Amino acid sequence: MTRLRFGLGVPTATEGMMYPVPYADVHEAVHLACEAERLGFDSVWGNDHVSTQQYVRSEYAEPPRFFDPLTYLAFVAARTARIRLATGVLVMGFRNPVTVAKAVATVDHLSDGRFVLGLGIGAYREEYEAMWPDRRVDRGMHAAEYIEALRLLFTERRASFDGDHVRFADVESYPKPLQDPLPILSGGNSEGARRRAATLADGWIPACLTPEEYRDGLTGIHEIAQAEGRVLRDFEPALQLVVALGDTNEAATNRFRSSQVHTHLTSLGASTMRGRLEDLIVRNLVGDPDQVATRIEAYVEAGVATFAGLLFAADTVVETLDQMEWFSGEVMSRFSDG
Q: Which residues make Cβ contacts (< 8 Å) with residue 115, sequence separation at least 6?
């Protein structure tokens, strides 16, 4: 049986969305990553936002704190020894791929080869438009070119790319990442995200799918790859979910539905969660430890190997740490090699 991996979604840019304002300052965010390593989590996943969404501004008087995920992960690299450091996900439209390649290679070296690059187009177009008010782009086409360009920057001595959306000429970017290849995961629930996973990436990381939906999506990825003549070696099938543990199913359900992360998921009804808001309970890990473990087994049968960027239904750091400890001791332990 493939060893299961469990990763924590760390609060790089989660205030006002997955968590209230305020939730965690940068030192508390680092502490959560260190505790994840102590508790046996495989990885930490930092998300990426640059500007406050309109719905968050209308809900909170104070703005949320959004930390840069790459800078954060570089710092966490120095405070940890084993845990993988991942972006879940880095938004491609926010940054030039040449500078991303440089930053990613640097973090990979600082961490002795523990970096994982999750990439996506971003759930909120308004952030892209705030950064580039005069630029109109097909974000899916831009994303495909972006990943191709990164591959060149990671491997070629002198890299050039002349696409419709990404262009650079004769860039010599060293050092290359320590890992060869450096793992790139395609983030998102859309057909485009799956196609990029099949043709360009080393894994797939959608969010809040049922086991049946995940199985269908993964099957489609392998079919696309086969049609394109690509062999998916060391492909990482990942999934991001919310965890809400309780002594009873009722207690867990109440915890989930009263949490800020539940409110956040409903805000994604027009993008990531389009058509998937009818029953968020069955799309996440909600219940007592036995129920959650059974649910994980169903996802494993559907092909999930990495439960990446898990978000705990908790509105304070203390509650999050309690849920992490409970999940590690009562759920993760059932799937350990020992």
A: 73, 84, 85, 86, 104, 107, 108, 177, 179, 182
